[in-house]
Write a structure and sequence with these properties.
- It contains 16 helices and twelve strands.
- Helix 4 links the parallel strand 3 and strand 4.
- The radius of gyration is 21 Å and the shape is globular.
- A seven-stranded mixed beta sheet has the order 9-8-7-6-10-11-12, with helices on both faces. It has a five-stranded mixed beta sheet with strand order 1-2-4-3-5, sandwiched between helices.
- Bound molecules: 1,4-dihydronicotinamide adenine dinucleotide and 2-oxoglutaric acid (AKG).
- 2-oxoglutaric acid (AKG) binds next to strand 3, helix 4 and helix 14.
- Belongs to the Glu/Leu/Phe/Val dehydrogenases family.
């Protein structure tokens, strides 16, 4: 590693001890951005990266709530307001027992670059709680959301900070959070995205992250003269991103072989078609069941308890569950099995060692900050529609989403093409994302 990258990382890690996920995200950015700054005088001596790794504001708060037995429960709430150089803070809320400062800071940091790549005016933020929605009744989730928003409402606003969903926060939670904000502030305004269509949501927002990931993969494949049609695809996760990545892949004629949850994965050799996917959507979104139940409905499929799907032979892999879910050995297995393209739907699902394997093998690899940016981009379009007091059709939103994903791909190629013609999408996404934020920071002085 270059000496100045090492010195920079040493300094950041001293100030952010016991934050491995945050340091992992910073490390990946520093390796590409520090050499870029060294080649570009206008970005030198302004402490840009040093300022970017320091959140503008971090809010932590107590979230007390009553469970169905009348017991008092206490969780911890967070909002990281990372960078507002190019717009109001924007990024999701995660409700999961593993949530801590390190995870939310890595997500907020990634969000700054991702939101910049969309070309829409959104800064970066992220938040959430260690609350576990699994096994909770609707009423418990509602009481938790109301308590969480009672504090969060003091820190957000349509022109200040606009949260949305992430793991464990879907349409149900956004509805409860929005209802409480409106009651507290007596104001009907676009303070959250991912809202229901009946109260200011955008068509295609639920689909956008998964669809966008597949659009990005199409772009990468088409540079190689390849198509997604007839390709075999391995997907991890069975939540929002995984479901709609699968749906778009099926619509485009690919064969989806796997989906998973934290218990294990299902492998359906015949392919998961739209009817089977509808079963999974109902299972996960309404019944809130486990992916293992798939094989009770479709007995030709197999359930692999406690395993991830990366040993299944495929042309394309779309990790859509969570961070660090695809390890070095998994990456080797994928490459050995002839996988030609890996598109991150989740945030940072591949470890740095796994990414290194993909880069060394020169296969197509896109980082989440580029290939899952369709979700936040469509949140940006929801904000635009809220400001306009207007709603675009599905076709209009999907067309804009498609254009944004094509444009992000083009930017990655512009900044990430190596001398031998291989596109390093990590480098491309980092530099393209950095330039816009850095220019705005330079214009705004030392703030
Ligand atoms: N929802 C969105 O619009 C966006 C989400 N993302 C990222 O996509 C990923 C998935 O998010 P969503 O689909 O929204 O969440 P979700 O809550 O709808 O689904 C999460 C899925 O991941 C699985 N999962 C969680 N922890 C796991 C573990 N330890 N091992 C295996 N599987 C696990 C869950 O079982 C579930 O299937 C996350 O990394 C999130 O940050 C990224 C961009 C936008
Ligand atoms: O739609 C949003 O604002 C946030 C989406 C998100 O959390 C992400 O891109 O990771």
């Amino acid at each position: 590693m270059e000496q100045n990258v090492k010195e920079f990382l040493d300094k950041v890690s001293k100030r952010n001890q016991n934050e491995p996920e945050f340091m992992q995200a910073v490390h990946e950015v520093a390796e590409t951005i520090i050499p870029f700054i060294e080649e570009n005088k206008k970005y030198q001596n302004m402490m840009l990266l040093e300022r970017m790794v320091e959140p503008e504001r971090m809010i932590m708060f107590r979230v007390p709530w009553l469970d169905d037995e009348g017991n008092i429960q206490v969780n911890r709430g967070f909002r990281i307001q990372m960078n507002s150089a190019i717009g109001p803070y924007k990024g999701g809320l995660r409700f999961h027992p593993t949530v801590n400062l390190s995870i939310l800071k890595f997500l907020a940091f990634e969000q700054v670059f991702k939101n910049s790549l969309t070309t829409l005016p959104m800064g970066g933020g992220k938040g959430g709680s260690d609350f576990d929605p699994k096994g909770k009744s609707d009423n418990e989730v509602m009481r938790f959301c109301q308590s969480f928003m009672t504090e969060l409402a003091k820190h957000i606003g349509a022109d200040t900070d606009v949260p949305a969903g992430d793991i464990g926060v879907g349409g149900r939670e956004i509805g409860y959070l929005f209802g409480q904000y409106k009651r507290l502030q007596n104001e009907f305004t676009g303070i959250l995205t991912g809202k229901g269509i009946s109260y200011g949501g955008s068509l295609i927002r639920p689909e956008a992250t998964g669809y966008g990931n597949v659009y990005f993969a199409q772009n990468m494949l088409s540079r190689k003269g390849e198509k997604i049609e007839d390709k075999t695809i391995v997907i991890s996760g069975a939540g929002n991103v995984a479901q709609f990545a699968a749906e778009k892949a099926i619509q485009l004629g690919a064969k989806v072989l796997t989906m998973s949850d934290s218990g294990g994965y299902i492998y359906d050799e015949e392919g998961i078609n739209q009817e089977k996917l509808n079963f999974i959507m109902n299972l996960k979104n309404e019944k809130r069941g486990r992916i293992s139940e798939y094989v009770e409905e479709y007995p030709n499929a197999r359930y692999h308890e406690g395993e991830t799907p990366w040993s299944v032979k495929c042309n394309i892999a779309l990790p859509c569950a969570t961070q660090n879910e695809l390890l070095e050995d998994d990456a080797r297995k994928l490459v050995e099995n002839g996988c030609m393209c890996v598109g991150e739907g989740a945030n940072m699902p591949c470890t740095p060692e796994a990414v290194e394997v993909f880069h060394s093998a020169k296969i197509l690899f896109s980082p989440g900050k580029a290939s899952n940016a369709g979700g936040v981009a469509t949140s940006g379009l929801e904000m635009s529609q809220n400001s306009l007091r207007y709603a675009w059709t599905s076709e209009e939103v999907d067309k804009k989403l498609h254009e944004i994903m094509n444009n992000i791909h083009a930017k990655c190629v512009e900044y990430g093409t190596d001398k031998d013609g291989y596109v390093d999408y990590v480098k491309g996404a980092n530099i393209a994302g950095f330039v816009k934020v850095a220019d705005a920071m330079l214009a705004q002085g030392v703030v």
